[in-house]
UniProtKB/TrEMBL annotation:
The name this protein goes by in its record: Tryptophan--tRNA ligase
The keyword Cytoplasm is annotated on this UniProt entry: yes
Subcellular location(s) of the protein: Cytoplasm
GO biological process, one term: tryptophanyl-tRNA aminoacylation
Listed EC numbers: 6.1.1.2
Origin: domain of life: Bacteria
UniProt entry keywords in alphabetical sequence: Aminoacyl-tRNA synthetase, ATP-binding, Cytoplasm, Ligase, Nucleotide-binding, Protein biosynthesis
SUPFAM superfamilies: Nucleotidylyl transferase (SSF52374)
Family named by the database record: Belongs to the class-I aminoacyl-tRNA synthetase family.
Task performed by this protein: Catalyzes the attachment of tryptophan to tRNA(Trp).
Underlying gene: trpS
HAMAP family in the cross-refs: Trp_tRNA_synth_B
Any one GO cellular component localisation term in the record: cytosol
Length: 330
Protein backbone atom coordinates (compact mmCIF):
# COMPACT_ATOMS: atom_id res chain seq x y z
CA UNK A 1 0.00 0.00 0.00
CA UNK A 2 1.42 3.40 -0.93
CA UNK A 3 -0.83 5.50 1.28
CA UNK A 4 -0.43 5.46 5.04
CA UNK A 5 -2.74 2.92 6.56
CA UNK A 6 -5.31 3.83 9.18
CA UNK A 7 -7.50 1.64 11.36
CA UNK A 8 -10.52 2.57 13.40
CA UNK A 9 -13.41 0.72 14.98
CA UNK A 10 -16.78 1.49 16.49
CA UNK A 11 -18.94 -0.58 18.80
CA UNK A 12 -22.39 -1.75 17.75
CA UNK A 13 -23.85 -0.90 21.13
CA UNK A 14 -26.70 1.41 20.16
CA UNK A 15 -29.69 1.34 17.83
CA UNK A 16 -28.26 4.37 16.05
CA UNK A 17 -25.13 6.45 16.02
CA UNK A 18 -25.63 9.97 17.35
CA UNK A 19 -24.42 13.37 16.18
CA UNK A 20 -21.52 13.24 18.64
CA UNK A 21 -20.28 9.99 17.09
CA UNK A 22 -20.67 11.43 13.64
CA UNK A 23 -19.11 14.85 14.15
CA UNK A 24 -16.49 13.60 16.60
CA UNK A 25 -15.35 10.50 14.73
CA UNK A 26 -17.27 9.04 11.81
CA UNK A 27 -17.23 12.08 9.55
CA UNK A 28 -13.48 11.96 9.81
CA UNK A 29 -13.51 8.29 8.76
CA UNK A 30 -15.16 9.37 5.55
CA UNK A 31 -12.55 12.07 4.89
CA UNK A 32 -9.60 9.80 5.64
CA UNK A 33 -10.55 7.64 2.68
CA UNK A 34 -9.09 10.32 0.38
CA UNK A 35 -5.64 10.21 1.92
CA UNK A 36 -5.30 6.84 3.63
CA UNK A 37 -5.62 3.13 3.07
CA UNK A 38 -8.48 2.79 5.54
CA UNK A 39 -9.62 -0.25 7.56
CA UNK A 40 -12.87 0.29 9.43
CA UNK A 41 -14.49 -2.29 11.62
CA UNK A 42 -17.63 -2.76 13.61
CA UNK A 43 -16.10 -4.13 16.79
CA UNK A 44 -18.59 -6.68 18.03
CA UNK A 45 -15.99 -8.55 20.10
CA UNK A 46 -15.62 -5.40 22.16
CA UNK A 47 -19.39 -5.12 22.47
CA UNK A 48 -19.74 -8.29 24.58
CA UNK A 49 -17.42 -7.21 27.40
CA UNK A 50 -20.13 -5.71 29.56
CA UNK A 51 -23.12 -7.99 29.01
CA UNK A 52 -25.37 -8.00 25.97
CA UNK A 53 -28.44 -9.48 24.32
CA UNK A 54 -27.57 -11.70 21.29
CA UNK A 55 -30.52 -10.73 19.09
CA UNK A 56 -29.96 -7.06 19.77
CA UNK A 57 -26.24 -7.31 19.09
CA UNK A 58 -26.82 -9.01 15.74
CA UNK A 59 -29.32 -6.33 14.76
CA UNK A 60 -27.09 -3.47 15.92
CA UNK A 61 -24.08 -4.86 14.08
CA UNK A 62 -26.04 -4.78 10.83
CA UNK A 63 -27.51 -1.35 11.48
CA UNK A 64 -24.07 0.00 12.37
CA UNK A 65 -22.57 -1.30 9.14
CA UNK A 66 -25.51 0.06 7.14
CA UNK A 67 -25.09 3.50 8.73
CA UNK A 68 -21.37 3.54 7.96
CA UNK A 69 -22.17 2.85 4.33
CA UNK A 70 -24.93 5.46 4.41
CA UNK A 71 -22.65 8.24 5.69
CA UNK A 72 -20.14 7.55 2.93
CA UNK A 73 -17.77 4.76 3.87
CA UNK A 74 -17.03 3.36 0.44
CA UNK A 75 -16.38 -0.40 0.46
CA UNK A 76 -14.56 -0.14 -2.86
CA UNK A 77 -12.01 2.30 -1.49
CA UNK A 78 -11.85 1.15 2.13
CA UNK A 79 -12.01 -2.16 3.93
CA UNK A 80 -15.21 -2.29 5.96
CA UNK A 81 -15.77 -5.39 8.05
CA UNK A 82 -17.18 -6.93 11.20
CA UNK A 83 -14.52 -7.84 13.75
CA UNK A 84 -15.85 -11.30 14.73
CA UNK A 85 -15.72 -12.37 11.06
CA UNK A 86 -11.95 -12.04 11.19
CA UNK A 87 -10.73 -14.65 13.70
CA UNK A 88 -7.20 -13.24 13.78
CA UNK A 89 -8.37 -10.48 16.15
CA UNK A 90 -9.06 -12.94 18.94
CA UNK A 91 -6.00 -15.00 18.06
CA UNK A 92 -3.56 -12.10 18.19
CA UNK A 93 -5.24 -10.72 21.31
CA UNK A 94 -4.29 -13.90 23.17
CA UNK A 95 -0.64 -13.53 22.20
CA UNK A 96 -0.68 -9.86 23.22
CA UNK A 97 -2.35 -10.75 26.53
CA UNK A 98 0.65 -12.91 27.27
CA UNK A 99 3.11 -10.04 26.89
CA UNK A 100 0.98 -7.52 28.80
CA UNK A 101 1.74 -7.01 32.47
CA UNK A 102 -1.13 -7.41 34.91
CA UNK A 103 -0.07 -4.17 36.58
CA UNK A 104 0.18 -2.43 33.24
CA UNK A 105 -3.37 -3.44 32.31
CA UNK A 106 -4.58 -2.47 35.77
CA UNK A 107 -3.51 1.09 35.16
CA UNK A 108 -5.98 1.65 32.32
CA UNK A 109 -8.25 4.40 33.56
CA UNK A 110 -11.16 3.46 31.30
CA UNK A 111 -11.32 0.02 32.93
CA UNK A 112 -11.19 1.59 36.37
CA UNK A 113 -14.07 3.93 35.48
CA UNK A 114 -16.22 1.32 33.77
CA UNK A 115 -15.62 -1.44 36.31
CA UNK A 116 -16.32 0.96 39.16
CA UNK A 117 -19.71 1.64 37.58
CA UNK A 118 -20.53 -2.07 37.30
CA UNK A 119 -19.08 -3.01 40.65
CA UNK A 120 -15.44 -4.06 40.42
CA UNK A 121 -16.11 -7.70 41.34
CA UNK A 122 -18.67 -8.11 38.60
CA UNK A 123 -16.68 -6.57 35.72
CA UNK A 124 -15.62 -9.23 33.21
CA UNK A 125 -12.05 -10.24 32.46
CA UNK A 126 -12.94 -9.33 28.87
CA UNK A 127 -13.52 -5.74 29.94
CA UNK A 128 -10.17 -5.85 31.71
CA UNK A 129 -8.27 -7.01 28.62
CA UNK A 130 -10.30 -4.86 26.23
CA UNK A 131 -7.32 -2.53 25.53
CA UNK A 132 -5.21 -5.56 24.61
CA UNK A 133 -7.79 -6.66 22.06
CA UNK A 134 -7.75 -3.10 20.79
CA UNK A 135 -3.97 -3.34 20.39
CA UNK A 136 -4.44 -6.52 18.36
CA UNK A 137 -7.06 -4.79 16.18
CA UNK A 138 -4.55 -2.12 15.25
CA UNK A 139 -1.35 -4.19 15.00
CA UNK A 140 -2.90 -6.88 12.79
CA UNK A 141 -3.18 -4.37 9.95
CA UNK A 142 0.23 -2.77 10.49
CA UNK A 143 -1.63 0.54 10.81
CA UNK A 144 0.56 3.64 10.60
CA UNK A 145 -2.04 5.85 12.20
CA UNK A 146 -5.00 5.59 14.51
CA UNK A 147 -7.44 8.47 14.90
CA UNK A 148 -7.78 9.01 18.63
CA UNK A 149 -9.78 11.22 20.88
CA UNK A 150 -8.54 12.15 24.33
CA UNK A 151 -10.33 9.14 25.88
CA UNK A 152 -8.34 6.66 23.77
CA UNK A 153 -4.85 8.10 24.21
CA UNK A 154 -3.84 5.78 27.01
CA UNK A 155 -4.98 2.74 25.05
CA UNK A 156 -2.96 3.76 22.02
CA UNK A 157 0.07 4.27 24.28
CA UNK A 158 -0.39 0.66 25.45
CA UNK A 159 -0.63 -0.51 21.84
CA UNK A 160 2.64 1.23 21.05
CA UNK A 161 4.34 -0.25 24.13
CA UNK A 162 3.16 -3.75 23.22
CA UNK A 163 4.26 -3.40 19.59
CA UNK A 164 7.70 -2.22 20.67
CA UNK A 165 7.99 -4.96 23.29
CA UNK A 166 7.08 -7.68 20.82
CA UNK A 167 9.48 -6.27 18.23
CA UNK A 168 12.29 -6.17 20.80
CA UNK A 169 11.65 -9.63 22.19
CA UNK A 170 10.89 -11.54 19.01
CA UNK A 171 12.19 -9.45 16.12
CA UNK A 172 10.67 -6.60 14.15
CA UNK A 173 7.12 -7.64 13.32
CA UNK A 174 4.78 -4.71 13.92
CA UNK A 175 4.51 -1.16 12.71
CA UNK A 176 4.36 1.06 15.80
CA UNK A 177 1.27 3.22 15.15
CA UNK A 178 1.14 6.98 15.63
CA UNK A 179 -1.86 8.85 16.97
CA UNK A 180 -3.64 10.73 14.22
CA UNK A 181 -4.86 13.99 15.62
CA UNK A 182 -7.82 15.16 13.70
CA UNK A 183 -8.25 18.85 13.11
CA UNK A 184 -11.88 19.23 12.34
CA UNK A 185 -13.66 17.04 14.76
CA UNK A 186 -16.11 18.70 17.06
CA UNK A 187 -16.93 17.86 20.63
CA UNK A 188 -20.72 17.79 20.82
CA UNK A 189 -22.48 18.22 24.13
CA UNK A 190 -25.80 17.09 25.53
CA UNK A 191 -28.74 19.26 24.45
CA UNK A 192 -30.31 19.17 27.89
CA UNK A 193 -27.12 19.27 29.89
CA UNK A 194 -24.72 21.26 27.71
CA UNK A 195 -21.66 20.80 29.92
CA UNK A 196 -21.79 16.99 29.51
CA UNK A 197 -20.84 15.25 26.27
CA UNK A 198 -23.57 13.94 24.04
CA UNK A 199 -23.61 10.22 24.72
CA UNK A 200 -25.77 7.17 24.17
CA UNK A 201 -25.74 6.78 27.95
CA UNK A 202 -27.15 10.29 28.40
CA UNK A 203 -29.48 10.81 31.32
CA UNK A 204 -32.27 12.15 29.09
CA UNK A 205 -33.16 10.84 25.62
CA UNK A 206 -33.81 14.47 24.68
CA UNK A 207 -30.13 15.22 25.14
CA UNK A 208 -28.96 13.43 22.02
CA UNK A 209 -29.78 13.42 18.33
CA UNK A 210 -29.59 10.03 16.68
CA UNK A 211 -28.85 9.71 12.99
CA UNK A 212 -31.77 7.33 12.62
CA UNK A 213 -34.40 9.12 14.64
CA UNK A 214 -37.55 10.72 13.25
CA UNK A 215 -36.44 14.08 11.79
CA UNK A 216 -39.48 15.80 13.29
CA UNK A 217 -38.54 14.49 16.71
CA UNK A 218 -34.96 15.61 16.24
CA UNK A 219 -36.22 19.07 15.32
CA UNK A 220 -38.31 19.16 18.47
CA UNK A 221 -35.31 18.26 20.60
CA UNK A 222 -33.28 21.08 19.10
CA UNK A 223 -36.10 23.52 19.75
CA UNK A 224 -36.25 22.45 23.39
CA UNK A 225 -32.47 22.44 23.88
CA UNK A 226 -31.29 24.13 27.04
CA UNK A 227 -29.86 27.52 26.21
CA UNK A 228 -28.10 29.96 28.41
CA UNK A 229 -29.03 33.11 30.23
CA UNK A 230 -28.80 36.26 28.18
CA UNK A 231 -30.23 36.52 24.70
CA UNK A 232 -27.23 37.18 22.53
CA UNK A 233 -25.98 34.53 20.15
CA UNK A 234 -22.27 34.38 20.88
CA UNK A 235 -19.78 31.53 20.85
CA UNK A 236 -18.31 30.96 24.30
CA UNK A 237 -18.27 27.32 25.45
CA UNK A 238 -17.28 28.36 28.99
CA UNK A 239 -20.09 30.75 29.81
CA UNK A 240 -22.58 29.82 27.10
CA UNK A 241 -22.20 26.06 26.55
CA UNK A 242 -25.76 25.57 25.25
CA UNK A 243 -25.72 28.14 22.47
CA UNK A 244 -22.11 27.32 21.65
CA UNK A 245 -23.01 23.66 21.17
CA UNK A 246 -25.82 24.60 18.78
CA UNK A 247 -23.43 26.81 16.84
CA UNK A 248 -20.86 24.01 16.72
CA UNK A 249 -23.40 21.57 15.28
CA UNK A 250 -24.67 24.18 12.84
CA UNK A 251 -21.18 25.01 11.62
CA UNK A 252 -20.11 21.37 11.33
CA UNK A 253 -23.17 20.36 9.31
CA UNK A 254 -23.20 23.32 6.94
CA UNK A 255 -19.51 24.16 6.59
CA UNK A 256 -20.24 27.76 7.55
CA UNK A 257 -17.74 29.17 10.04
CA UNK A 258 -18.84 29.97 13.57
CA UNK A 259 -17.88 33.62 13.05
CA UNK A 260 -20.05 33.76 9.98
CA UNK A 261 -22.99 32.28 11.88
CA UNK A 262 -22.56 34.66 14.82
CA UNK A 263 -22.60 37.54 12.38
CA UNK A 264 -25.65 36.20 10.57
CA UNK A 265 -27.60 35.84 13.85
CA UNK A 266 -26.62 39.21 15.32
CA UNK A 267 -29.78 40.83 16.66
CA UNK A 268 -31.77 37.62 16.36
CA UNK A 269 -32.89 35.34 19.18
CA UNK A 270 -32.24 31.77 20.31
CA UNK A 271 -35.56 30.78 18.77
CA UNK A 272 -34.42 31.81 15.28
CA UNK A 273 -31.18 29.89 15.64
CA UNK A 274 -32.95 26.78 16.90
CA UNK A 275 -35.57 26.88 14.18
CA UNK A 276 -32.95 27.05 11.43
CA UNK A 277 -30.70 24.46 13.03
CA UNK A 278 -33.65 22.10 13.46
CA UNK A 279 -34.13 22.29 9.71
CA UNK A 280 -30.41 21.78 9.00
CA UNK A 281 -30.34 18.66 11.21
CA UNK A 282 -33.54 17.24 9.72
CA UNK A 283 -32.20 17.76 6.20
CA UNK A 284 -28.94 16.13 7.19
CA UNK A 285 -30.33 12.98 8.75
CA UNK A 286 -33.11 12.34 6.25
CA UNK A 287 -30.93 11.10 3.34
CA UNK A 288 -28.75 9.09 5.74
CA UNK A 289 -31.89 7.33 6.91
CA UNK A 290 -33.02 6.62 3.39
CA UNK A 291 -29.68 5.10 2.44
CA UNK A 292 -29.48 3.09 5.68
CA UNK A 293 -32.93 1.73 4.99
CA UNK A 294 -31.92 0.72 1.47
CA UNK A 295 -28.97 -1.29 2.82
CA UNK A 296 -31.09 -2.93 5.50
CA UNK A 297 -33.79 -3.88 3.02
CA UNK A 298 -31.40 -6.13 1.17
CA UNK A 299 -29.80 -8.27 3.89
CA UNK A 300 -28.22 -10.69 1.41
CA UNK A 301 -26.43 -7.85 -0.34
CA UNK A 302 -25.29 -6.35 2.98
CA UNK A 303 -23.98 -9.73 4.15
CA UNK A 304 -22.13 -10.17 0.89
CA UNK A 305 -20.57 -6.75 1.13
CA UNK A 306 -19.40 -7.45 4.69
CA UNK A 307 -18.10 -10.89 3.69
CA UNK A 308 -16.02 -9.27 0.96
CA UNK A 309 -14.74 -6.76 3.54
CA UNK A 310 -13.82 -9.59 5.92
CA UNK A 311 -11.95 -11.38 3.12
CA UNK A 312 -9.98 -8.23 2.32
CA UNK A 313 -9.20 -7.77 6.01
CA UNK A 314 -8.11 -11.40 6.40
CA UNK A 315 -5.68 -11.10 3.52
CA UNK A 316 -3.73 -8.69 5.71
CA UNK A 317 -4.50 -10.00 9.20
CA UNK A 318 -3.68 -13.64 8.42
CA UNK A 319 -0.29 -12.67 6.99
CA UNK A 320 0.50 -10.73 10.17
CA UNK A 321 -0.66 -13.57 12.41
CA UNK A 322 1.42 -16.12 10.49
CA UNK A 323 4.52 -14.02 11.07
CA UNK A 324 3.67 -13.59 14.74
CA UNK A 325 3.13 -17.34 15.22
CA UNK A 326 6.38 -18.06 13.46
CA UNK A 327 8.28 -15.56 15.62
CA UNK A 328 6.97 -16.98 18.88
CA UNK A 329 7.64 -20.59 18.01
CA UNK A 330 4.23 -21.94 16.93
P1 LIG B 1 -20.86 7.16 23.53
O1 LIG B 1 -20.21 8.28 24.29
O2 LIG B 1 -22.19 7.52 23.00
O3 LIG B 1 -20.84 5.86 24.32
P2 LIG B 1 -18.70 6.00 22.12
O4 LIG B 1 -17.90 6.05 23.36
O5 LIG B 1 -19.16 4.67 21.61
O6 LIG B 1 -19.95 6.95 22.25
O7 LIG B 1 -17.89 6.77 21.00
C1 LIG B 1 -17.69 6.37 19.68
C2 LIG B 1 -16.88 7.44 18.99
O8 LIG B 1 -17.60 8.67 18.94
C3 LIG B 1 -15.57 7.77 19.72
O9 LIG B 1 -14.59 8.01 18.75
C4 LIG B 1 -15.89 9.01 20.50
O10 LIG B 1 -14.76 9.80 20.75
C5 LIG B 1 -16.88 9.71 19.58
N1 LIG B 1 -17.82 10.51 20.35
C6 LIG B 1 -18.78 10.03 21.18
N2 LIG B 1 -19.49 11.02 21.72
C7 LIG B 1 -18.98 12.18 21.23
C8 LIG B 1 -19.31 13.58 21.42
N3 LIG B 1 -20.29 13.95 22.20
N4 LIG B 1 -18.58 14.50 20.74
C9 LIG B 1 -17.58 14.10 19.92
N5 LIG B 1 -17.22 12.83 19.72
C10 LIG B 1 -17.91 11.86 20.36
NA1 LIG C 1 -18.76 5.80 25.74
Amino acid sequence: HDRPRVLSGIQPTADSFHLGNYLGALRNWVGLQDTHDAFYCVVDLHAITAGHEPKLLRQRTRVSAAQLLAIGIDPDRSTLFVQSQVPEHAQLAWVMNCITGFGEASRMTQFKDKSAKQGAERASVGLFTYPVLQAADILLYQADAVPVGEDQRQHLELTRDLAQRFNTNFGKTFVVPEPYIVRDTAKITDLQEPTAKMSKSASSPNGLIELLEDPARAAKKIKSAVTDTGREIVFDPETKPGVSNLLTIYSALTGRSIDDLVLAYAGKGYGDLKKDLAEVVAEFIRPIQERTKTYLEDPAQLDKLLAVGAEKARAVSSATLRRVYDRIGF
